[in-house]
Automatic annotation (TrEMBL):
Coiled coil: none annotated. A motif ('HIGH' region) lies at residues 18-28. GO terms for molecular function: ATP binding; glutamate-tRNA ligase activity; tRNA binding; zinc ion binding. It comes from the Bacteria. Catalyzes the attachment of glutamate to tRNA(Glu) in a two-step reaction: glutamate is first activated by ATP to form Glu-AMP and then transferred to the acceptor end of tRNA(Glu). It holds the Pfam family tRNA-synt_1c. This is Glutamate--tRNA ligase. Residues 11-318 form the Glutamyl/glutaminyl-tRNA synthetase class Ib catalytic domain. It is found in: Cytoplasm.
Length: 473
């Protein structure tokens, strides 16, 4: 027989297998990010599998949000989505094969009997577990089948030996088979259970690497035994530590996590989310800011962290700000235009081509496209200065200089240099310093007292709007 290690390496095939029982948050997406990145870095295949067997809680709306979130982040799968509910005939076919081979047996123990057994074991300070009452053994006489009871199907777990695997994150893990009871693999109505479906899916989809949260570690030895009963070696496992929220709790919907799509609406960039999440459990030296391309070039399983990572929204905003500053102005303008559209600024209003230059001027002081749109909006819609700013800066003493500036701006060439020269002439004539004139001009034209260079702002605002706003005082 050919040694497994001498076979040519199989193409890497990874999967993300969410349950569509609510919105998807950043902790969930981190569990998708690493299998996606590993498949991309190895020239492999990334598969999306929807584990929708929880009929009471699974919804199409939740599936749609998963697909929308992954598409926004640029993490579209190569295959799928596959839906477990559509694969029920396949699961039942494999169950029948296992039962015929003696690996699966019917168990007629009722819920009440299981509860009583559990209470008895707990009272005796034993680990609660199924005691094998209905497990067929050579020479064993099984109890009489109770009338009218639909059995569950249980997997005949080996009684001896060790289940072991070399986890790419946690290292060597060994579980004694005697610690595992016989797992229910099909409910009384014949519906197969999670741990069984996962194994059939991973075999059929030829998954080579299972990269998932460490809340699945306890499932892994059971799944490995089912793999081997089906004549297959298990994939390589990497169990990722939990992502904690800012209070140190497991990130979850219950603990205040936000949907991934909310970050899109709040003006975060997909590449910044990828960058930030990548560092929540993986590192490449001391690199903090990197592109998607760099991440996919560098990513490996060897540098995954064994420690839980804590989410920090302030750090995410900082990472987003770095990506926003580095982004090409034209591409950034497209995203800001989407934010402006939500505020009633139509594409026709942006046809003059100023938006990329506005983005270039303001992006260094913004950490999201929403913040950048707040600035850009002032160029396309009327502004109303706060009364406090008006009272502080637009004072009677400055009126003559403002009137003089209006005349100078009406007559000068409309570019940054000429506007700057007009300011200097007025300042010299009235014996003023730049802030004494620039602050009231900013308040009247932009509605705020602090902006980037006032000549650059006015040039972009346009002569007509500047003069109208300066006169409206």
């Amino acid at each position: 027989m050919t040694e497994r290690n001498s076979l040519p390496p199989a193409q890497v095939r990874t999967r993300f297998a969410p349950s569509p029982t609510g919105f998807i948050h950043l902790g969930n997406i981190r569990s998708a990010l690493y299998p996606w990145a590993f498949a991309r870095s190895q020239g492999g295949v990334f598969i999306l599998r929807i584990e929708d067997t929880d009929l009471e809680r699974s919804t199409q709306a939740a599936v749609d949000v998963i697909l929308e979130s992954m598409h926004w982040l640029g993490m579209d799968p190569d295959e799928g989505p596959y839906y477990q509910m559509q694969r029920m005939p396949r699961y039942k076919e494999v169950l029948a094969q296992l039962q015929a081979a003696g690996h699966v047996y019917p168990c007629y123990m009722s819920v009440a009997e299981l509860d009583a057994l559990r209470e008895k074991q707990l009272a005796a300070k034993q680990k609660p577990r199924y005691d094998g009452t209905w497990r067929p053994e050579p020479g064993k006489v099984l109890p009489p089948i109770p009338p009218g009871v639909q059995p569950v199907l249980r997997f005949k777990n080996p009684h001896s030996g060790v289940v072991a695997w070399d986890d790419k994150v946690k290292g060597r893990i060994e579980i004694r088979n005697e610690e595992l009871d016989d797992l229910v693999v099909a409910r009384p109505d014949g519906t197969p259970t999670y741990n069984f479906c996962v194994v059939v899916d991973d075999i059929d989809m030829r998954i080579t690497h299972v990269i998932r949260g460490d809340d699945h570690v306890n499932n892994t030895p059971r799944q490995i035994n089912i793999f081997r009963a089906l004549g297959h070696e298990p994939p390589i496992y990497a169990h990722l530590p939990t992502v904690l929220n800012e209070r140190g709790e497991k990130m979850s919907k219950r603990n205040g996590a936000k949907p991934v799509t909310q970050y899109r609406d709040e003006g975060y960039l997909p590449d910044a989310i990828i960058n930030y999440l990548a560092r929540l459990g993986w590192s490449h030296g001391d690199d903090e800011i990197f592109t998607r391309e760099q991440f996919l070039q560098w990513f490996d399983l060897e540098h995954l962290s064994r420690s839980a990572a804590q989410f920090d929204e302030a750090k995410l905003r900082w990472v987003n700000a770095q990506h926003l500053k580095a982004m090409a102005d034209e591409a950034l303008a497209e995203l800001v235009a989407e934010q402006l559209a939500k505020r009633g600024i139509a594409p026709a209003d942006l046809a003059d081509g100023r938006l990329p230059r506005i983005c270039a001027l303001f992006k260094d002081r913004c950490d999201t496209t929403v913040a950048l749109a707040d600035w850009a909006f002032r160029f396309y819609a009327d502004v109303i200065p706060a009364e406090s700013d008006r009272a502080q800066h637009v004072i009677e003493a400055i009126e003559p200089a403002l009137e003089d500036l209006v005349q100078a701006l009406a007559a000068c060439a409309w570019n940054k240099e000429a506007i700057g020269a007009a300011f200097k002439q007025v300042l010299a004539r009235h014996g003023l310093k730049m802030p004494q004139l620039a602050m009231p001009v900013r308040v009247l034209t932009m509605g705020v007292a602090h902006t980037p260079s006032v000549d650059a702002v006015l040039e972009l605002l346009g002569r007509e709007k500047v003069l109208a706003r300066l006169k409206n005082r």
